[in-house]
Amino acid sequence: MGDRWQVEVDRSICIGSAQCVHRAQGAFRLDSGMQSHPVEPETDANEKVLEAAENCPVEAIMITLLGSGEPVFPPEE
Ligand code: SF4
């Protein structure tokens, strides 16, 4: 069975660049205040979501393993 992820966006640092919305289509949406939200906060492990997190200009997207809370992105130092 594949991993399940918990996806969160820190909206205190999100600058609404919309890169995540374009990079992982269907996985993020911007609200009326141009803040990103994961469409499904709990999701199957997904390369596009990981790419979105890696490419967010302010590293506002955090991914952890559902259940254990182990960090997927940003990776543990
Ligand atoms: S890429 Fe990052 S800064 Fe841009 S909208 Fe998505 S979460 Fe916000």
Automatic annotation (TrEMBL):
It holds the Pfam family Fer4_15. It comes from the Bacteria. GO terms for molecular function: 3 iron, 4 sulfur cluster binding; electron transfer activity; iron ion binding. Keywords: 3Fe-4S, Electron transport, Iron, Iron-sulfur, Metal-binding, Transport. Its cofactor is [3Fe-4S] cluster. Ferredoxins are iron-sulfur proteins that transfer electrons in a wide variety of metabolic reactions. PANTHER family: FERREDOXIN (PTHR36923:SF3). This is Ferredoxin.
